Amino acid sequence: MAALYLESQKRPLTWNFRPRGKRKKRGFSIRS
Q1: What CA–CA distance (Å, rounded) separates 7 from 10?
Q2: Contact 4, 16 (CB under 8 A)
Q3: By the 8 A CB rule, do 21 and 28 touch?
Q4: Whether the Cβ atoms of residue 30 and residue 16 lie closer than 8 Å to each other
Q5: Are 28 and 16 in contact (CB under 8 A)?
Q6: How many domains does the chain have?
Q7: Where are the alpha helices (DSSP H) in the chain?
Q8: Per-residue pLDDT reduced to its tens digit, 1-32
Q9: 12: domain range?
């Protein structure tokens, strides 16, 4: 999980930290 978090840091946190991340498969998988 830590590795995925670090990888997400490189990408824009806009889609990563979305209130409706459930609709986004990418955001949901990372948040899960």
Answers
A1: 6
A2: no
A3: yes
A4: yes
A5: no
A6: 1
A7: 2-10, 13-16, 25-31
A8: 577 666 766 666 555 555 555 555 565 555 54
A9: 2-31
For the stretch 7-32, what's the b/e string if a residue is b when 16 or more beta carbons lie within 10 angstroms of its beta carbon?
ebeeeeeeebeeeebeeeeebeebee
User: Of the candidates 22, 31, 25, 20, which has an alpha carbon nearest to the alpha carbon of residue 8?
Assistant: 31
Distance CA 16, CA 10 (A): 11
Amino acid identity, residue 9? Q
Stated pTM of the model: 0.21
**Residues across the chain:** 32
Residue 6, C-beta contacts closer than 8 angstroms, at least 6 positions apart: none
